[in-house]
Amino acid sequence: ADKHQAKGIACASCHKEAPPKAAVSTGSCLTCHGSYAKIAEKTINVSPNPHASHMGELACETCHHAHKQSENQCGSCHEFPFKVP
Prior knowledge:
Blueprint: H1 2-6, H2 11-14, H3 26-33, H4 36-42
């Protein structure tokens, strides 16, 4: 949430209800961040690429959280030192 606010993106841009009652959907994330393929392109230099996962197209909130610490879900099985924003 802090990164979005720093760029001038209001809560209502992602949360479609006020006050928010649920997590933001992956569809809402993809509206601004692009398709899974576009996101994988942005992290192409990360090895292995966390957005070109053998798990397929995971929901963004599987790893990324706006209001609590994000988590490296790959790390539940692998030892990849990803820093998840």
